[in-house]
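Whiteboard transcription, Tuesday session. T.W. wrote the structure tokens on the left side:
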């Protein structure tokens, strides 16, 4: 595969109250040009930590990220090195991520000026970018408070585009928006991917949103990727018990009701992850040994990766009858 991003054995740790919290625990991922990779999982599973590490905002405890073959080093005061300028992040909060005291045009122009463009040219390009994301050039001289949440997220996208990104990590870019703005902003992202051939890692806790725009989906649980495959595979034939439970929880009109599974309990505290398979205390299909041995991610015949002892081939080893009534 022609890889834009290659993430190998990536871990992110925080230290809280003298205790180590491993928010991301050994993740491998790739992203190709023109691909949208959805990253889903419940709140606190480490999606944002992974996203921030990918763009150099968080320092990995282990592992590495390569962007176009270049090692992504944690950002320092000098900002983003030239070879990483085309790797950008869009944050969840369209209110917090835009400076309320500076004109929108100046904020978008910043990235262009850093890249060596004279200010007047940078402002001209900023106006074009604002047009591209569906806001007029009149937005240049306005301030953040004059825009709605959906419009601010378009501004954040325009600002990211100013760096001519070839890869974008979009962390819950639509979850703070109302339903119609959600559709508009996700359609905008898809059209930009089609126009510019960027790769996008699209982070969301909502599988039904992710499946509408993603080519592939990675499912994360307590710091680990438990299943990764094409959107078709994940949505229509989820394999890992956690993926199946997530899909079962989606209302029938939207979700796939094959092989429904319950998802009991809450996500455990990542400072005290369960031994063995981290999902075992909640897994409706838990087996003897799941509490002690860690399932490695394995590639099945259909190409997807799954980290579960039950998946030895494309067939689900546990007969469906045994699931009934659980
Ligand atoms: N700066 C930090 N310091 C200490 N702990 C942190 C920090 N950032 C995140 N964490 C913890 O790391 C874990 C993963 O957090 P993260 O924000 O990556 O999850 P998430 O999947 O993005 O969640 P959400 O869907 O709520 O945004 C959580 O337990 C969180 O409390
Ligand atoms: S390894 Fe065991 S506990 Fe983990 S998901 Fe598979 S069956 Fe469930
Ligand atoms: Mg998050």
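and on the right, the sequence the group agreed on:
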């Amino acid at each position: 595969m022609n890889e834009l991003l290659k993430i190998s054995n990536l871990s992110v740790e925080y230290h809280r109250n003298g205790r180590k919290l491993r928010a991301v625990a050994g993740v491998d991922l790739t992203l190709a040009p023109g691909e949208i990779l959805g990253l889903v999982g419940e709140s606190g599973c480490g999606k944002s930590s992974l996203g921030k590490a990918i763009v150099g905002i968080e320092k990995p405890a282990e592992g590495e990220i390569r962007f176009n073959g270049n090692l992504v080093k944690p950002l320092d005061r000098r900002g983003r090195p030239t070879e990483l300028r085309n790797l950008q992040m869009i944050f969840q909060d369209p209110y917090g991520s835009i400076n309320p005291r500076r004109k929108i045009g100046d904020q978008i122009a910043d990235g262009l000026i850093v890249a060596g463009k004279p200010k007047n040219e940078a402002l001209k390009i900023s106006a074009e970018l604002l047009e591209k994301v569906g806001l007029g050039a009149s937005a240049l001289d306005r301030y953040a408070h004059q825009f709605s949440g959906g419009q601010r997220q378009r501004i954040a996208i325009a600002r990211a585009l100013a760096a001519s990104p070839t890869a974008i990590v979009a962390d819950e870019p639509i979850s703070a928006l109302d339903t119609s703005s959600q559709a508009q902003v996700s359609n905008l992202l898809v059209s930009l991917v089609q126009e510019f051939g960027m790769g996008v890692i699209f982070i969301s806790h909502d599988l039904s949103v992710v499946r509408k725009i993603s080519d592939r989906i990675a499912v994360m649980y307590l710091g680990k990727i438990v299943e990764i495959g094409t959107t078709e595979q994940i949505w229509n034939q989820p394999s890992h018990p956690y993926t199946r439970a997530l899909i079962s929880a989606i209302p029938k009109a939207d979700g796939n009701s094959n092989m429904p599974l319950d998802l009991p309990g809450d996500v455990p505290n990542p400072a005290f992850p369960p031994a063995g398979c981290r999902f075992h205390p909640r897994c409706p299909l838990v087996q003897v040994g799941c509490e002690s041995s860690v399932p490695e991610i394995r590639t099945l015949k259909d190409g997807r990766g799954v980290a579960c002892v039950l998946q030895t081939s494309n067939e689900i080893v546990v007969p469906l009858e045994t699931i009934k009534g659980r």
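Someone added at the bottom: Residues 47-48, 171-172 surround magnesium ion (ligand 3) (CB under 6 Å).
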